[in-house]
Design brief:
This protein is mostly beta strands. The protein has strands at residues 5-14, 18-24, 28-29, 32-33, 36-40, 43-47, 53-57, 61-67. Strand 5 (36-40) and strand 6 form a beta hairpin.
């Protein structure tokens, strides 16, 4: 079975009052389209299609959606 891939995650953000913000592959963040999301030691890293780091997110996470790639014939 292939490795799971993060498709999106939701965090608790705060401006004047707390709200839920969703980061997802294909959505723009910081003026760039998010092509990949990697989690390492509780830090979510957003990458563009050139594998350049867009941002690191360290906020309380409320949910993560994964995709499980279907492997080719063995």
């Amino acid at each position: 079975m292939g490795e799971k891939v993060i498709k999106s995650f939701e965090v608790v953000a705060e401006a004047t009052k707390p709200f839920i913000y969703k980061f997802e592959v294909g959505k723009e963040f910081g003026g760039q389209a998010v092509d990949d999301i990697i989690e390492h030691d509780g830090v979510f890293k957003l990458f563009n299609r050139n594998d350049e780091l867009i941002s690191e997110i360290q906020l309380p996470v409320v949910g993560v959606k994964y995709e499980y790639p279907v492997s080719e014939a063995m």
